[in-house]
């Protein structure tokens, strides 16, 4: 086989692989994905409920293992940083540091929130498929007779869905966190490094606002 033919075949194979990756779609329907994540997380919280009483920090490990892999932290970071996610205001290194910090604080926020639902049930609302690239699936958590709607906005990452934003009781957490970060930047005199270091997103404050 001559060199030109080898190069042509190699290029053809690579093009096919890239194309198949680019157009790959999640095998699961959005509601099935959200149900799988919710069921896995709640089952783990229930299984370890007795341990959580003596080791509250365990909930962060559970969330890190059962929820964090399904969060698109890069997309969430862009939403929360808003205009500060552009090259005009921050560098790639600063955005990477923000994402690292933000991901960890999300685990803390969601850990404390989901720990409250460990012994509760939920119902999945009927899903309405749309042409949107960011489908939304809503769960109603039944907390002592009170229904708390939690909507998960998803993004297609090629071979699986990931969560890019969350809405609780009609409150867009991404937007509320963005407002909190903007306020942090202002308090730190516009210094992005200081704002990133000091930013602590507060989900409870956002939802109760």
TrEMBL record:
Keywords: Signal. It comes from the Bacteria. The keyword Signal applies. Residues 1-24 form the signal peptide. PANTHER family: INTERMEMBRANE PHOSPHOLIPID TRANSPORT SYSTEM BINDING PROTEIN MLAC. This is ABC transporter substrate-binding protein.
């Amino acid at each position: 086989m001559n060199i030109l033919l080898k190069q042509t075949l190699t290029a053809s194979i690579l093009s096919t692989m890239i194309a198949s990756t680019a157009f790959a779609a999640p095998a699961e329907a959005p509601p099935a994905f959200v149900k799988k994540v919710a069921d896995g997380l709640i089952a783990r919280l229930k299984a370890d409920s007795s341990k959580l009483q003596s080791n509250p920090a365990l909930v962060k490990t559970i969330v890190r293992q059962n929820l964090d892999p399904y969060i698109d932290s890069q997309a969430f970071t862009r939403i929360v940083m808003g205009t500060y996610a552009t090259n005009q205001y921050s560098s790639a290194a600063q955005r990477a540091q923000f994402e690292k910090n933000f991901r960890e604080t999300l685990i803390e926020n969601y850990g404390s929130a989901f720990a409250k639902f460990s012994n509760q049930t939920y119902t999945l609302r009927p899903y309405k498929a749309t042409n949107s690239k960011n489908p939304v699936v809503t769960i109603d958590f039944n907390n002592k007779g009170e229904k708390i709607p939690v909507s998960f906005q998803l993004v297609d990452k090629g071979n699986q869905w990931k969560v890019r934003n969350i809405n609780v009781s009609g409150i867009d957490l991404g937007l509320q966190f963005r407002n909190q970060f903007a306020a942090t930047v202002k308090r730190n005199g516009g210094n992005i490094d200081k704002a990133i270091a000091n930013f602590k997103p507060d989900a409870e404050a956002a939802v109760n606002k």
